[in-house]
């Protein structure tokens, strides 16, 4: 794991967490349909676990799967979907 990849992944995860927190604070995402509050909370937990691994300099790459859920059930033009996919990809790259 290079420091540059890890920092890039951390930055993108922090952005994703902020977006999820904002959506949760606003009562969810009624416009997204599939993105229930429970789903957002689950994504938040997973992103936090990814962040902890990166901060400990020991990413395992085992926290992947957000992308499958997002691409299978979210609208293609959802801006949060892009942020989540970007964060997961950066995490995966940092774990290699």
List keywords for this structure.
96 residues, mainly alpha, Substrate Binding Domain Of Dnak, Chain:A, Domain 2, 4 helices, 0% strand, globular
Strand and helix layout:
Blueprint: H1 3-25, H2 37-55, H3 66-73, H4 79-94
Describe this entry's structure for a reader.
The chain is mainly α and 96 residues long. It has one domain (3-94): Substrate Binding Domain Of Dnak, Chain:A, Domain 2, CATH 1.20.1270. It contains 4 helices and no strands. Helix 1 (3-25) packs antiparallel against helix 2, helix 1 (3-25) packs antiparallel against helix 4 (79-94) and helix 3 (66-73) runs antiparallel to helix 4 (79-94). The protein is globular and about 35 Å long. The model has no long low-confidence stretch (mean pLDDT 86).
- C-alpha Rg, in Å? 13 Å
The CATH class is identified as Mainly Alpha
State the domain count. Answer: 1
Count of extended strands: 0
> How much strand content do the residues show?
under 5%
What's the shape?
globular
Q: Uncertain segments of ≥5 residues (pLDDT<50)? A: none
Query: Which assembly state applies to the chains in this document?
Result: single chain
Estimated helix fraction: 55-70%
Mean pLDDT: 86
Question: What is the gist of this entry?
Answer:
This protein is 69% helix and 0% strand. The protein is mostly helical.
């Amino acid at each position: 794991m290079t420091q540059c990849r890890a920092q890039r992944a951390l930055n993108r995860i922090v952005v994703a967490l902020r977006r999820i927190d904002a959506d949760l604070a606003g009562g969810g995402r009624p416009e997204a349909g599939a993105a229930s509050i429970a789903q957002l909370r689950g994504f938040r937990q997973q992103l936090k676990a990814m962040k902890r691994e990166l901060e400990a300099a020991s990413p395992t790459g085992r926290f992947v799967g957000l992308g499958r859920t997002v691409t299978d059930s979210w609208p293609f033009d959802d801006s949060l979907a892009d942020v989540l996919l970007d964060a997961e990809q950066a995490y995966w790259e940092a774990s290699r």
